[in-house]
Structure formats: C-alpha cells, structure tokens
Amino acid sequence: PGQRIGTASGMAWRRCAMSTAKAACTRKSSRVAIVGGGLAGMVAADALASRGFEDLHVFDMGRRATGGRASVRRTQEGYFFNHGLQFLRLGSPKVSSLAAEWVRDGALMEWTGRHGRLDASTGNFTPRSDCEPGAHPDFCSFLEPGKLYVNGGLTEHLRRKNEPGVRVELGCKVSAIDGSGGEGGAAGPWRLRGSKFGEPVHTFGDFDAVVFTDAMAGRKGSPGHVLLNGEVELGSLFPVLDEVRVKPVFSLMVAYARGDVSCDFDAASVVGSEAFQFVSAENAKPNYDAVGVDCDSFVALSTFERAEDLLERHPQQKNFKFVEQTKDYLDPIQADLLADFESLLGCEGKVPVYAKAQRWGGAFYSSGGGGVSRGLKSYVDEGRMIALCGDYCCETSTAENAVLSGLDAAERLAGMLP
C-alpha cells in the first residue's frame, strides 16, 4: 500500500479533554509508540491521551528528562540555562487556550522585560515597542507584537499529567522498526529496536502505530536515524524527510560574577553581528532556577553562518558517524564563541565563572515539500500506521508549529485507530 496523506480531521481533540469526566471519553485499545519527547511528541501524547488512548509509549534520547530542543541545562555546580528554546509564541487560535491552561498549571511562564533589538555594529539597543516589524532581521519573530512565554517544564508537566497512560522511557535510541506494516492490507504491528543508555535493546515492544517527531529519523549518520525492516529509509515513505534542510546553531552558556558584565537589556534580537543572532540574560527569565550560585548568566545563539563556519572546522559527522560533543570537541568552539561574546557585550578581560558551548545540529529546519505547500502540519501513512510530526513538517520552524503539528498528528491518528 502506498502513502495516503489527507487533511486533518475537523474534530478538535480538546472536546474530550474538556469533558468534566475523563471516563466519558471513548477508551481506545491501540498501542502507540511516539519516538521523541520534545514539544511535538509530548503534545501528541497528551492529545491522544485526552482522546481515550491509554497505552502510549514515548521513547526519548534525553538522559534526564523529556524536552528535546525545549530542554534546559542544570549543571552540577548549580548554574541554569535555557540553552535551546528561548521562548514560545502561542498566538494562533488553536493553541492560545492551551497556552492559558499551561500558564495556569505553571508549565509555561509569561516573559516580559527589557526586550528589543541590539545593533552589534553600534552597540545601540532599541526597545521592542520601538522596533518596526519587518524592518530588520528578527530572531524567530521575537520583536513582533504579542505575548512571549518561557518553558516552565511543559513536556515534563504533560508527562506527569497523563501517567500511567503515557509511559516515558529515557535514554532510548530507536534505530529500527520491523513488521508487516501494511503487507496484505493490514497495518502493523511494528516492533521497535535500538539501545537504551548505550546498551542494545532487542525490542522496545510491539505497537499498532508509530509516530516519529524528529527529522533526524531520515538522516543517515544522525543519532536518530531509523530503518524500516532493516533496509527501507523513512524518506522513501515520506519524501518530506529528504526535502528537509537542517539549519544548525551553537549556543554559548556563560556566567560571570555578579556585576562583572554591564547589560542594559534582558534579551535582544541581534543585528550587525557575524557571530550571534540572539542573546538573553538568563537571570531575567521567570523560569531561572540556579541553585547555590550568585552570578549573571547569559545564553547567546550563533548565527547560521557562524555555525556553518565552526562546523567546517569541527564537523558533526565523520564517515557517516555522529561525532559526540566531548570536552575536546567543544572546548575550541567554546573559546571562539566566548571571544565573540566578549566583543558583543564589551566585557573583554572579564573571566567567566562558567562557560560551555552546545551544538544544535538540528536547531531549525526548512522544507519546501509539497505537503508544506498544501498547508499540512503532519504526515500519516494510513496503510502502515506511521506518522510524522514536528516543526520540520511545517512552513516555518517554530515552537508553535511543533505544538500544532503534534496536535494535528494526534487528531488524524485518533480517527484511524480503534
């Protein structure tokens, strides 16, 4: 059977979730695997749970918690950084009510402060309210009007909310799915294999449907690469995976003794810099959670061009094998980015109390696939019961689109599975 991609069901999954009694939802017996515990994966799991699915399994590569690019960094010394996702904009009608609910639950926090644009060539800072929309490059529409939110542990909140119907397994790399997958007119069951905390796993179990949330599932040499029945690339089922273009960035996490660095803003979209496109004072974020350290902490995200330059000298793949982010690998990158940061904020000569670089090989995605042009936000092979969701399925790579894609995939699968 070939791939059948249709439009999303018009039935809102929230109808069941908003019922006063969850027991009123029709119970679903299907067993569903979700590969990836980032925003798209955990939102999809939450949406399926609210529609009566009680046997959902999320497999995530994270070793400590779910989150993916929305995860935060808590160091052994007590430092805290939002080293990936900097903020969320959730203004579309479909997610605005969800955003309000998540804020009430403490899973999101509204972020206000001294936000604006920093011109690195002059050092001038322009408040967000004085920035003309579209007049300058703008990191993820940071300067556009509307509410901004930071992550208050959203994916872990969705995990706790839905236990035991949603079971999360951490440290898992799914590398293969085997099964009939539509042969003879029957979908599944799919058997998932891979490793857990580096140890081979013969099987993670058998599932009626599988949802992949990371474009890396179709990328050879990446940690998330998956083969179907030992030889079939997912890109042959879903051409969008071959059309996706990865846009990597590096983040610099740095902390200084209190008062060592003067900064007259809380966060800024940066223009006129070859090195950085966004910088944030972490202490000013409402989710800041450092423990036992008194410091001023910052996160700076590299430009795409700077990331490409660094990757030319420090490749993330060699011979189709993933290069681990070891200290030896990251130290020279960290030194270069730290020099760039000191120049940006004029703090040359100040010695940080903490500094670390992070490579985000799949930070952002761009896709010109046919599904995007038709307004699709997820892909479902009905014959095989395999689905894709994530921001890479959408026209723009944003946190909001990751949420919308997870909802879309859940709605469509819920209408197909018993």
Give me a quick take on this structure.
With 418 residues, the chain is an alpha/beta fold. The chain has helices spanning 14-17, 39-50, 93-104, 154-162, 234-237, 240-243, 304-313, 327-345, 370-373, 399-414; strands at residues 32-35, 56-59, 73-74, 80-81, 108-110, 115-119, 124-127, 149-151, 166-169, 172-179, 190-196, 199-207, 209-212, 227-228, 232-233, 245-257, 267-271, 276-281, 295-302, 317-318, 321-322, 354-366, 378-381, 386-389. It is 22% helix and 29% strand.
What does this molecule look like?
By secondary structure, the chain is of the alpha/beta class. Helix content is 22%, strand content 29%. It is built from ten helices and 24 strands. It has helices spanning 14-17, 39-50, 93-104, 154-162, 234-237, 240-243, 304-313, 327-345, 370-373, 399-414; strands spanning 32-35, 56-59, 73-74, 80-81, 108-110, 115-119, 124-127, 149-151, 166-169, 172-179, 190-196, 199-207, 209-212, 227-228, 232-233, 245-257, 267-271, 276-281, 295-302, 317-318, 321-322, 354-366, 378-381, 386-389. The chain has a seven-stranded mixed beta sheet with strand order 7-6-17-18-19-16-22. A hairpin with a 2-residue loop joins strand 11 and strand 12 (199-207). Helix 2 (39-50) packs parallel to helix 4 and helix 2 runs parallel beside helix 10 (399-414). It starts with 13 loop residues before the first helix and ends with a helix. The relative contact order is 0.20. The model is unreliable at 1-24 and 182-186 (pLDDT under 50).
